[in-house]
Batch of 4 targets.
Target 1
Amino acid sequence: MTAKPDVKGFYDARTFSIQYVVSDPATRKCSIIDPVLDYDEKSGATATRNADTILDYIREKRLSVEWILDTHPHADHFSAARYLKEKTGAPTAIGARVVEVQKLWKEIYNWPDLQTDGSQWDRLFEAGDTFTVGELQGRVLFSPGHTLASITYVIGDAAFVHDTLFMPDSGTARADFPGGSAKRLWASIEEILSLSGETRLFTGHDYQPDGREPLWESTVAEQKRSNPHIAVKDEAAFVALREARDKTLPMPKLILHALQVNIRGGRLSEPEGNGKRYLKIPLDALAGAAWE
């Protein structure tokens, strides 16, 4: 039998993001996946409310953190990986192709001093790499399409797919960010759907279609049965559907804010002479302006 980890989701309504603590019931070891560092774009304020809620849960359940994992450099929220590493001492990890994302965004930000070797994380996972959470076996799938570097963590019977598959009533993730590809996304989805039908899939966002309550857990079988984007069952049809949909979507409001933090493992910029930190926003850098 495939081991069944305990999975606790934490929904952040500001960014529609789900953060996870996945734990081994036998050893009380756990990993944190895709944690959010709070950021208010109107005031420029940062906070650690989401991350502290996760830490409270870990203390309440008497868990020990073995990993702090990101599935990819996020475009819609800041990663709290750095903060949680400081609080827990646990190593951070992300997919090895993050170096390609770093190189791409280094040019967009005109950031000559940015290190693009992935050294901001403790481990870079390649496709097929394995790791453990307590006695649970984990492995890594390379799942590009949404970004160049997206990966899926399969831990026991649970797969953390973030911006690849949404809930069945919400389809799939966009593929029009710099480095994205609808064709690659289709291949990534096909690999995820080759897992056992009972595999639990945990998505990274839920936009509450028709105002329903937030949801984030499905199964491979449910996705095959109910997700309309998958029902096309053909790469060309999927690519056409995805690209047409993406042309209607504005860029995420935090993409230019978040990427400069997240390609550095959740590190904020260093304080300047006045003690304040600053973000750098390139003008006219991305297509997809929403003027109406």
Target 2
Amino acid sequence: MDLHAELRALLESPRGAQAQQVRSLQAQAAKRAHPEEWNTQFGSESLFQAWTSSPLMQALYAKNSAVIRPILDRNPGWRVIELGGGDGRIWDLLRPDDRGEILLIDPQPEVHAQVASRLPTGVSLQSVVDVAQAPAQWGQADLVLCSLTLHHVAGVDKQQRETVGLTGPGKLEVLRRAKAALQDRQGILVLNEASVHCEIDLPVGDPELTDNLIDSYLRRCARAMLDAIDAQPSHPMAGQWLSIAHRWCLDQIAVAELPLSERDVYELDVVRWMALLDRAGFAVQTQGFSDPYRLFSQYICR
């Protein structure tokens, strides 16, 4: 059976049997992996480029662009704070005559180079090579863009982090800094995150945590990759989309067995994100999914 068929069979199997099947496929995946681990490089052979080229992510970019472009048009000399830059693809929405400034906060120097390469000459880049919760000077902004970034911050707040021996700010404190940065300019927060509960309140090995991760990464994300392949089998990224589904999506299920300090995913579902945004002082103007799999949710907040 080929990889595509194996994953399809897993997705069609009874929900209660999927965890064991995941373990079996993970053992096979280790032998047949794409040579690049997830999100370690950029370029034409990168799995990250394949990911950002997928219909799932293209839909997210389109939904963000529809919100961001009017904000820039209304604010000549605009200033944007971006938390986590990816490969900078969202900034393809900029025009040659745009004038503004982007403060980018991301721990990877390569990300800053990727974003810089996409900016027109009239848009300057300020770089903070650090994590989103670092005590950098943000200043004021017309827009804070935080796309698929806050799930890397463990804990809904500093207090919850302390219950498991972690220090420093959690998601709430980062969101409150965003609120403060937007206050004077009456700016807007654009937040994108997957809707899945896998925060630190679900402990290592919890069956609910495992099932939630399977739901997010396999039943929705991997299914989206397989559907993209079926719809465009000759697409130049089709083979890499399969590698993402078989390697990365499967690997992420193992997060359920890792110590909290080694996890890289601490997500919330829509209800929990809405409650957290309210605690941070935001009024959510709109909330909606950017894809038919109801994976990524966009929150537009003031």
Target 3
Amino acid sequence: MGRKLGNYEVLDEIGRGGMAIVYKARQRSLDRIVAIKELDLKRSASDPRAGDRFELEAKAAASLHHPSIITVHDFWERGKKAYIAMEFVDGLELKEALDVTGALDPRLATQIVIQVCGALQYAHERGIIHRDVKPGNIMLSRKGDVKLADFGIVFVSGTTDLTTTGAIIGTPSYMSPEQIRDEEPGPASDVFSLGVVLYEAVTGSRPFSAQNEVALTHAILRKRPIKPRRLNKRISPRLSRVIMKCLRKKSHKRYATMDEMEAALVKTLPRRTPDAARQIARLVMVAEEPGTQEATIPLEPVRVTSRTRHLLSLSGLVSLAVLFIILIIPPLPWKGDLNSVLVDSQPSRLTIVAYPWAEVILDGKSLGYTPRVAPYQVPSGRHKLVLRNPELGTRTFDLTLKPGGSASVKIDFLEKKR
């Protein structure tokens, strides 16, 4: 791009939100690659404290020096814009990986979350509550590192809260009940949010979903989520119990600290667990394979994907024969899960919306659960689609999909009850 930002040369735009843009840049004085987050103060005029929070984000993150927290290098303002220069992570967000792969192997998901526990414990010990823990703020690198990012709405103990009283700032799907009630948060609030992340990572489903924000906040405050093990039998009873404890409505009934949550998670892992770094690196590589980009939703989706067997559940020890096959056979586009590769050169895109949720069964094979934003990529031709909700019934559809075309199926299981 060639644009200059002080001592930095912008190389590419790598992310964009409502008020901020993230660039990949080179710091010329030290000849290193960084990420620069740019906040447009003009566009944030409707939120008068956005600039103050942006500065607080920079200062809070800069005060934290932990291997699983993205390092902040610099902060400055120029004109009507503010900037944060930070560590560049060569990889992708956990959110992007889940969009492509669906539910992860429970062991791998647990190992990722354990590293986030360590980062949050470190922050909590310094009086910093993250308040926006979600898959989009957890980075996975090509080297197998896990990094917690975006301290944009942190609460710093002993300081004035810079969020607007009565306003919900954050990502509702991952908010704790006390955040929704606009109460002062503590470590247990991040425990709840990280529990939501882990639930989604091992089931492909968020524990709380609804058609609108009001119904969603009601579900978080009042409704008990489906136990993870009911959605994915590969989740151990012990891990399922740990997740459900994280999601208790009353904060004092959750784990009091991230250390407690981490210790409980460690106990769920078998003695022989594949190396996390190698599996994470493999996950990043697979999620970035050509043909998977269309399945990545750049904005905040509500999605549930396949609970079928994940390639990452295989041991990291690969025989020479398998390695030989991998090297000589060109990659094929990945479907929603990593065990299913579509041979169809022009697969169709199938979007399914079933409220409140349903198991998706195509030609007798389970593809996972709704809600899901990322379309399924399926071979063209005739198919039998079954949407099943054990409590609300079953719907069957006969579909004819054209090569390279798209189709959508929408159903509200509660419609007859209204």
Target 4
Amino acid sequence: MVSKSFQLDADRSSRTGLDEAIFCAHKTTNDIVKIMQSLLERKTRALFTRLSQVKFEQIPINVRTELNYDPFSSTAILGTMLEPTNEPNIAIVSAGTSDLNVVTEAARTLIYYGKGYVDINDVGVAGLWRLLQRIDDIKKMDVVIAVAGMDAALPTVLGGLIPCPIIGVPTSVGYGVADSGSTALNSMLASCSSGLSVVNIDNGYGAACAALRILQIAKPGSDS
């Protein structure tokens, strides 16, 4: 008897406060459908990331209709769509409109968890006045996710202007030596802004999860 090609982690939320997400990029459509069917049998919500539109359209219609799919971010939410339960306390700040697919992946992750957020887009430091116009709004947030490609200066500049935790997301946007995001990643890792946290290239999902963990720790009455 051939074993299943997947093992779902039903207890992850109770251990970590975060559900298991299904990363679809290197899975076959057949495996994705089997996972969805297993989740539907359990009546379990789930977030699917890196689900291409080609694979989404190959999913049988009876399963596909159970998904809230966003082709721009390549994410799908299986199950109930939650309404935000709080005033927005996370800002997703991006350098340029070319970064918006990564921004949207982060936003969809927060939407999955019913978390409010504020989008502040196209405020890269090449036009510093755009960022300074919104800095008072950004200062009100408990956590900031800063998304930038090319030289990725945005998180460093924010680190010198605001007190809250900043999670840098390097993107693969840029020419030549931008090297598909490697330069942005190295720039953030070499930042002179103390306390800047950095996730992997184009990892909007990971940045949103980091923000959720920070807010979980910061809840009143939580262990110090």
